[in-house]
Amino acid sequence: MLVAALGVLSGLLLPALPAQASSSPTPSASSSAAAGDSSAIRATATCAQTDTTACVAGTLRDADTNPVRGATVTLAAGGTPVATKTSAEGTFSFTVTAAGRYTLSLDESTLPEGLTPGNGTERTITARLGALSPAGFALEGAQQGGETDPEATPQGDTSAFGRFWNQVSLGLLLGLLLALGAIGLSLVYGTTGLSNFAHAEQVTLGGFLGYVFAVQLGVPFVLAGVIVIVLCALTGTVQDRLIWQPLRRRGLGLTQLMVVTIGLQLALQYVYQFIFGGGVRPVSRTIQANTGPLNITPNAYIAMAISVVVLIGVGLLLQRTRIGRATRAVADNRPLAAASGIDVDRIIRLVWTIAAGLAGLAGLLYALVYGGIAWNTGAELLLLLFPAVTLGGFGTAFGALVGSLVIGLVTQLSSLVLTAQLRYASALLILIVVLIFRPQGILGRRSRVG
Amino acid sequence: MPGYRSTGRRLAALAMGATAAVALAACSSGGGTSPSASTGASSSSSASASAVSVKAVPKCESGADETTQLKLGAFIPLTGGLAFLGPAAVGGVDLALNDINEAGGVLGKDACVNLVDSSETSQAALSVANIKKQLQSKVSAIVGPESSGVTYNVLPTVNGAKTVLFSPAATDDGLTGVSPYFFRNPAPNSFEASALGSQIVADGRTKVAFLTFNDPYGTNLRDGMESVIKDSGSAEVVYGAKGKNQEFPSTETNFGSDVSAALATKPDAIVIIAFDQTKQIIPALVSAGWKMGNSYFVDGNLNDYSADLPEGTLTGVKGATQGVNPSPELRAKLAAAYKANGGSSEPTAYGYGAEAYDASTLIALAAEKGKSAASEDIRKNLPAVSGTTGGEICKSFSACKQLLDDGKEIQYQGYAGTGPFNSKRDISSGYISIYQYEGNAPSKFLTSTKESD
């Protein structure tokens, strides 16, 4: 049967078979016993089912997932049972030539000390020709001094506090990365009153540029990061010159401007998809192990530190410097600021430049920490950025920080009690509740509302 | 790739990457974008090695009578996200017709081909316009399309014209029994779930976690595997089981939370059922200390990750994909047929080429059996030539035609090795192959299992 198909496979099978044979242990019981006349059972070192044979196979592991060697397993179908011992890898396998029901049993007395069968020692197996019928016994207890599988030992802190702390650290990380993305959104709103829906696409741009420079062109990561920030900042400058300044001069209302940003958002998404495809693009090929008190990767600590420094820096810039005071003046009353000699267009362009540069940095770090960037990553983030900014208070750097941390922590902590699918819904619910009691946001100034 | 690997292995790895990308693309009913066409672009140069002579297949004349001559429509993606699958399918159809015509044609006449672009799911208007054009030029039957989404888009039109549509690649479960004129021969998702679930149990896994993205493709596969795992008596699903609402949204971009929740259940195996999100899930798992060798992938993410991950990250990971991997000989023939009929370059992926060949041959045999190339007669005779009447097994058009001429019932078994149609016009049995990662490419073929419904 199906010789043609096997012919197709043989090219692959043939090189694979010798390798399997050489690495497999000698079968301890290879005697074939004929149960009836057609249901011949053979214990085999490995079994590759063909169209005329079926395979019954399994692997014995202890509770630590280490392989159990030398246990006796017996397969029978009415006639003489055939026994075999498990290999050094804990595997056993039988090749049978008739489909149907077989009884597999485990000899408990041959198990290493300390191991007991978790769910009986007998299984009924239905063999299908050409297919693998799996057979297994869950074993309880760990063997002493037995084989250890270097690939075993899956991890995970299962204590309640461990889980809680884990989610707190994930929440802090997400919150700080969001804050970095949110601050530009907040600044642009603060100075121009515009809700920029295309802001998250600036975040995506940072990730993609990171991919281009750090991965495709092989530029060292820190240098690539600097290039990315500069290029992203330039897109902010150019954007304001080509789009937002002319639109401001024409006196477009904020609603119309917002619709323009939505158009720009969609256009940019499809341009990214066109250039980079639908897949995820990494900005680094390295993977680090989680470490430290927060149990996150070293890169994640660095990203959090950068975020904190940048946010404080922007906050101080706004409060302490001339440029910052000018920015706040423009935010509060543009005609008055203009009348008092402030170059409003220059301030706004500066804000766009800073916002786009920080968004690029946020995208780069996001892609670094979360394993890559896709054309729609920004669009997904935007749904968290707006709530973060609204929650913290539009137009303030520290507000963006506080709002982002709340959103980050709530989304991650909620999955301790709610299903993971509701994690973002819970954050948005918090947003609504806070705004009912503090419409200006946590750190927003009351005067701006109403 | 490391230097120690033999050239053959390297080619196999490249080809595997291509096949996996194919499987991935063809199984997503969306089909608007191909998440990893880039891996599919890694060309297998083995195809050009041997010289195979394949003649061009005549193009159909629109005035010719489609009931006395086999006028085969080929409705294959030449543009859009699945365009990289096109060459192998075009090659499969043309190679089959070449073999058929060398054996004397169908009903004594050379069979001809009418090729149009099926495009992609998001281009529904273009797909429908193209297939209408094809139907107006009177074809006996159509092979295609590759995407489930495009199939849904054109089915009403094809049904209206009462013409057989035979897809070599659409795997969406919802297409089962959807129309009396719709046939297909790729192995369905349920076969893959059964094969991979069995592998997981046979590997001695007892606590399995599923990281599944919330999409019918993902949850169908998960459900199938979960039932195999539960039925084993030795293993259980500790995370991501059906009804636990632990699937992640397909737009999720950070997986730290999902990974820590899954690892907190102390699994000894993790099955990742996702498309390109896998690239973000892997680093999250590795960072948290998970040994990737205890993981399992599905056809949707059985890709070559060499460009994305540190060397050796995925060694030991096992994964399943539909069908058989076309042999080097078949690849060479598919490439030659594609070029002989105007193809400009080598196909970059070979997945579903064997299925396209078999689909074309089955249609020709159905016409021979019914002594008519009218679509209605082909439809009636397709199940019989696939083996539903328990006929004699034959493996080529010429051998099968000989048996038909002798008045015997036949069962055609072609390159894809699929069994007879069931009552819903899906294949009753087919092959699933299990591969293992060496480095970051699923290059080690482990086993093929035959699954049936």
Low-confidence region ranges of chain A: 1-38
End-to-end gap of chain A? 81 Å
Mean pLDDT over all positions of chain B: 85
- Whole-number total of structural domains of chain A: 2
Beta strand count of chain B: 14
What is the helix fraction of residues of chain A, given as a range?
40-55%
- Main sheet attributes: strand count, strand direction, barrel closure of chain A: 5 strands, mixed
From the spread of the alpha carbons, the general shape of chain A counts as: elongated
Q: Which strand-content bin applies to the residues of chain A?
A: 5-15%
Helical element count of chain B?
A: 13
**Helix/sheet category of chain A:** alpha+beta
Task: Label the CATH architecture of the largest domain in chain B.
Answer: 3-Layer(aba) Sandwich
Strand order of the largest sheet of chain A: 1-2-6-3-10
What is the N-to-C succession of helices and strands of chain A? HEEEEEEEEEEEHHHHHHHHHHH
CATH fold-level name of the largest domain in chain A: ABC transporter involved in vitamin B12 uptake, BtuC
CATH architecture of the largest domain in chain A: Orthogonal Bundle
